[in-house]
Give the backbone structure.
Amino acid sequence: MTISPILGHYRILQKIGAGGMGEVYRASDDRLGREVAVKVLKPALANDPDRLRRFEQEAQAAAALSHPNIVAIYDIGMHDGSPYIVSELLQGQTLRQRLASGPLSVRQAAGLAEQIAAGLVDAHDKQIVHRDLKPENLFLTHDGRIKILDFGIAKLSPRVGAEDRSAEDLTTQTRAGTVLGTVAYMSPEQIRAQPVDHRSDIFSLGAILYEMVTGSRAFKGQTEADTLMAVLAGEPSEMTQLRPGTLPAFEQIVRHCLEKQPGDRFQSARDLAFALSTVASTGTAHFQPPRSWKKKARALAPWLLTAAALAAGGFLGVRWLPGSGPLYHRISFERGTIYSARFSPDGQGILYGASWNGGPLQLYSTVRDSPLSHPLGLRDASLLAVSRSDELAVVLHGTPDSREFIRGVLARSPVAGGTPREVLEGVRSADWSPGGELAVTHFADDQNRLEYPIGTVLFRSNGWINHVRFSPDGRRIAFMNHPIPWDDAGAVCVTDLAGHVTTLSEGWLSAGGLAWSANGKEIWFTAAQDTATTRSLWAVNLSGKKRNILTVPGNLTLQDIAPDGRVLLTVDTERLALEWTGKDPNDVRDLSWYDWSVAKDISHDGQWVLFEESSEPVGPDSAVALRNIDGSPPIRLGSGTVGGFSPDGKWAVAVVPGKPPRISLLPVGPGQARQIPLPQLEDVDAGGAHFLSNGTQLTIQGNEPGHLARSFLLDIATGKLRPLTREGVRAGLASPDGKYLEGSSAPDDRIVAFPVDGSAAPPVPLTAAGTHYRVAQWSADSKALYVYQSRRPPLPIYRLEIATGKLTLLRTLTPRDQAGVVTMAPVVTNLKASEFAYSYHQFLSVLYEISGLH
């Protein structure tokens, strides 16, 4: 096949591949100055209407997708009667080429399959089914990412495209009984030419997973007919026979993908990705199939069921075998966040507060052994406690802070419904005494206080207190104390009703979730040690002796314990994701690196995002990274906590802790990093360093020995410091004209502008702005700030006029996937507020009742 060296503004450089429908070339996009891949339909097929329609569908389907694990489509055109598609140029090899050198390890295969499943989630959410997944259509890039190729025979549902087109028109079957795809990877329903949906792709991915680990196809025969029959009626050989040492958990996940009936498989790619993550992250998870497997499941020993049975979504009624140990019963089945859960006083019902599928927070109730939950009609309310007389304690109108609500109003509400009666402002946690009185954690007088009864202070904390719980006899109150205001590190404490407080267990890196054991002799809680990355279930007695109860490769949060010992807990996945959006609000792109990507700055042209990655793969120190919005791999600049770009965009400034602390200037392009030690300061606030508009000075926040933290002006050339604010007052971003720093006042937390020149002029208060706003950026004219309040989506962004305090709505930001998003922050933008980058905190929870834990 010979084509013109010029297709539109694409200059053909060389042929790099060929497929059933066309050939692929490396080309130069002379308009944008980048290399691309161009796929051209074969001339012999250019006049075939069916082939043309399929080719157009490839472009239509793939162009609708924007995901790091799906090849990006840039353009489509026609040249000399032949259509062509322009996509990103990939460097690496196909999965088929990789498998030619041998099978993968279970962890490698699970990690790659998790990426594929993530790409399928994006496609399936847009009602696009690939229908031709196979190793040839999966591409491994040099940086370890896998890309899904060739949506050429993708089936678009009737909801995609023109509404007046029939489902038959949108299918890729050319005539009755004709099937497309590669036989060994096709689902049974696809072979039978029956209607297919997203579960067909899950079957194909299961066949690929099998081959990744064993090196052999799951279904094969001497002829194509034999292979067809193997898919329809055969069972693959045991993976452990072909690859000794294969984890039983992994094999059960693969076999669940390969069920003959779609209803018996994983019901979504999200569920499959979640199950795979337990294997990819630990290599040791175990999996128990749901009841639908009982007729043909290969019996696993009872001890195989651990974390993945809890974590994997979509499995109904996962249980241990009778007498084999704990019994797990799944309570929730929607996708989203569970904020709190409690047993009803009789122990037969469960009440919980949840936000499902991006919807509002509301309260639900369910009864034991029922898969149905019923809304109680109470929204914008976070459940705190249930009294013995069936009265609820809830927080109304609170500000979300992770999965808790702060600055809310405590209210009492009957379970049966009715208008809640407001009791007290500034409450975070509460519990009912056996006699029906409330103990609360209450923010007052610049402190968090444990009060019982309300108004009587038992304990004060300079940090924060949560998970207040009465002992069964009502004589003691257990709680968690978090001494650092911005951190969930904490300790388990107990007090008697006279305020004699004992710390039973401290030093936990992350602590959340607490309840008394059924006999009242221990306090059970979920927490992570400094050597762990996830929370486990622990117990501590009143003498301070602790023990581990349950550890799984996933986050656990204890919710409640019933009088008969049943435990209510959630299994959680958590991440801080990073997205970018431009002038078109529908153009939203995921720029996350791993699972904790914090947006810090954006270039003036909006094309580069500076962020910080704090997940386990980057090592013990946070990584300072840069990423282009085209989705190309991140560039790691260095370590530390990054502040922002220099005015010319050539440097990034980061804070590196130590003795002494130091400032690190990291070159964005070629060059060497520069270190500025700060021996004058005892500590420097992480992320608190920013360039002034002159590019020669920085603002930093830190404290001199024996003094409170304040803001300083640092001269880069000399390293000299000059105080900018009084002790205890901190400021941040400098205005483009170099005259002011934005900051916040205490204790009301209002935005304030501080003069940079140190003049005696008083700060300029922006009193009309209200409280608890964060600053995304200054305006280019230095007359306004772009501000927002951390909250669940959608997130409004405002222009705040400095002179008047007037707020004008600029934009509303909404993550592409809203399920489980509890807060959006931080947000950064450029001086024109034309492009935005933001992080969002996503919790996905599954609620379980567990019997038999001791």
The two ends are 71 Å apart (CA to CA).
